[in-house]
């Protein structure tokens, strides 16, 4: 068990980018204590041998996955694994009473057929999946509070949805006109070796991928449809940008009321996010930069209107590894545990 009063937490997939961010952030969390680290190829290694600069955060060794043991030790378990693994582990952990936060796509979809169509693989956990709550606190805070299983929102999806939500919820745009042009740093691809993520391949270059078919598209559409109240399709194009961390999503859509000016929309966005400590709506004429969010759980949003085209342009910047992944998970955990949503999460950027 953890310290008296501190909730014992486990992280499966501790060696990866999501896992290491969780270890680092939870070291400063006043109400949670990491008591278990799990993995596959890193099992048997002290975490400090994988990340020597985090020696002061934990003296734990990464262990092979033993779900009974994890459930006996931990009240909360984070799964930070490649897609298709959480769905094999979560049912046992939930049955044994753990609260589970999955950072992969396994528990993000309401319709399992959609998951299968985009991610493949056979699933035998449909009754468990039906209990999962979508982990984007700004939109589903009350449901997350009561959840035992949360499928945390994806990184591109978080940036895109926070830009679109006020517009869709209040019927301000023609939903089908929404176009999302998003750029991500290379850490979005995880820590595994991949040729396109090598410095020699990514540096000095900018390109799109997954054009017209990226698997974040159905996730964005699921939540946009929920907000709009009917099924809609959006256009989403991701790009790999030669930097390590950060996502900038630039979202375009046609306004229903061409009379709206940017000051109106900034007022509407500010009101929509007034109780959301991790969203900062910027003043008129200020547009976000990824480095402002880097190392923080913040999403910065800038809003503009082009009166020539009657389009609204919303820019949204996050750190993909924090608000897009580990920080979002901790924000959700805070809600599930009845703690302040801001507990243990960083607000100050690494840069400049
Ligand atoms: N990177 C990002 O920006 C974001 C990622 N995500 C999602 O979060 C999840 C984790 O991503 P990320 O941290 O980038 O991934 P990484 O590739 O960096 O890490 C993957 C982790 O999974 C572990 N793992 C792999 N196979 C197994 C297994 N069979 N049993 C136990 N552990 C296993 C690895 O452990 P070991 O080293 O021991 O083999 C490693 O710790 C993914 O689903 C990703 O889509 C979500 C939002 C943003
Ligand atoms: C640069 C890069 O490769 N990015 C990844 C981000 C995906 C990711 O990690 O997915 P989730 O947020 O859905 O978990 C990609 O495009 O697949």
Would you kindly provide a written description of the structure presented here, covering whatever features stand out?
The structure is a single chain. The chain is an alpha/beta fold and 352 residues long. 32% of the residues lie in helices and 20% in strands. A 7-stranded mixed sheet has the order 8-9-7-10-13-12-11. A 6-stranded parallel sheet has the order 2-1-3-4-6-5, with helices on both faces. A hairpin with a 4-residue loop joins strand 12 (299-306) and strand 13. Helix 1 packs across helix 13 (322-336), helix 7 packs parallel to helix 13 and helix 8 runs parallel beside helix 10. The longest helix is centred in the middle third of the chain and has 15 residues, at 155-169. Residues 104-105, 154-155, 184, 186, 188-189, 216, 238, 240 line the site of N-acetyl-L-glutamyl 5-phosphate.
Order of helices and strands: EHEHHEHEHHEHEHEHEHEEHEHEEH
Mean pLDDT: 96
How many distinct beta strands? 13
User: Fraction of residues in helices?
Assistant: 25-40%
Distance between the termini: 39 Å
Walk across the major sheet and give the strand order.
Answer: 8-9-7-10-13-12-11
Radius of gyration: 20 Å
Counting DSSP H or I runs of 4 or more residues, the number of helices is 13
Ligands bound to this protein structure:
NADPH dihydro-nicotinamide-adenine-dinucleotide phosphate, N-acetyl-L-glutamyl 5-phosphate
* Computed structural class: alpha/beta
Quaternary = single chain
Shape: globular
Quote the beta fraction. 15-25%
Q: pLDDT under 50 segments (min length 5)?
A: none
Biggest sheet architecture:
7 strands, mixed
């Amino acid at each position: 068990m953890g310290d008296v009063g501190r909730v014992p937490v486990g992280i499966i997939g501790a060696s990866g980018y999501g896992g290491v961010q969780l270890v680092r952030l939870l070291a400063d969390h006043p109400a949670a204590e990491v008591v278990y680290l799990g993995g596959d190829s890193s099992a048997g290694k002290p975490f400090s041998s994988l990340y020597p600069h985090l020696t002061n955060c934990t003296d734990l060794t990464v262990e092979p996955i033993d779900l009974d043991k994890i459930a006996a030790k931990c009240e909360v378990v984070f799964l930070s694994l490649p897609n298709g693994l959480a769905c094999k582990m979560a049912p046992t952990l939930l049955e044994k009473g753990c609260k589970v936060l999955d950072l992969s796509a396994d528990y993000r979809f309401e319709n399992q057929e959609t998951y299968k169509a985009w991610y493949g693989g056979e699933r035998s956990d449909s009754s468990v999946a039906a209990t999962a709550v979508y982990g984007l606190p700004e939109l589903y805070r009350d449901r997350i509070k009561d959840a035992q299983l949360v499928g945390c929102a994806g990184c591109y999806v978080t940036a895109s949805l926070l830009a679109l939500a006020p517009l869709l919820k209040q019927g301000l745009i023609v939903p089908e006109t929404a176009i999302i042009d998003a750029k991500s740093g290379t850490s979005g691809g995880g820590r595994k070796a991949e040729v396109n993520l090598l410095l020699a391949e990514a540096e000095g270059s900018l390109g799109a991928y997954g054009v017209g078919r990226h698997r974040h598209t159905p996730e964005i559409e699921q939540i946009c449809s929920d907000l709009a109240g009917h099924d809609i399709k959006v256009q989403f194009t991701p790009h790999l940008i030669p930097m390590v961390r950060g996502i900038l999503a630039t979202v375009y859509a046609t306004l229903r009321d061409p009379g709206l000016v940017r000051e109106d929309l900034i007022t509407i966005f500010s009101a929509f996010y007034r109780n959301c400590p991790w969203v900062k709506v910027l003043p008129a004429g200020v547009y976000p930069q990824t480095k402002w969010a880097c190392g923080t759980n913040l999403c910065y949003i800038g809003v503009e209107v082009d009166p020539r085209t009657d389009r609204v342009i919303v820019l949204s910047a996050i750190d993909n590894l924090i608000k897009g992944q580990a920080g979002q998970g901790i924000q959700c955990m805070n809600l599930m545990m009845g703690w302040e949503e801001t507990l243990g999460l960083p607000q100050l950027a690494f840069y400049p």
